[in-house]
Design goal:
about 100 residues, signal, 2 helices
């Protein structure tokens, strides 16, 4: 424990010397050299979004109207529903 305390005390004694070792240019000096700053644009690598050919809204509406059903499907039957043709087995009223 004494060793750690001595190391921390020695490091804290040297810290002010390191802080003064790096001298920054005077901000009021117009002739002071300034490091080059490179800023990358937020739009680097941007690719615009392009839609493909879209169908018209009229044809989409015709496709989902209630009068047009997919061949082979009955009302109340969902695609992929294997139990649509079976009777209810829960004991309640059936359709």
């Amino acid at each position: 424990m004494r060793m750690i305390s001595a190391a921390l005390l020695g490091a804290s004694a040297v810290l002010p010397l390191l802080a003064h070792a790096t001298t920054l240019p005077d901000p009021t000096d117009a002739a002071a050299s300034v490091p080059a700053v490179t800023v990358h644009s937020a739009f680097d690598g941007y690719k615009s979004y392009q839609d493909g050919e879209a169908t018209s809204w009229q044809s989409l509406n015709r496709a989902v109207t209630p009068g047009r059903r997919t061949a082979g499907m009955k009302q109340g039957q969902q695609s992929g529903d294997a139990s649509a043709g079976k009777k209810h087995e829960h004991g309640g009223e059936s359709e």
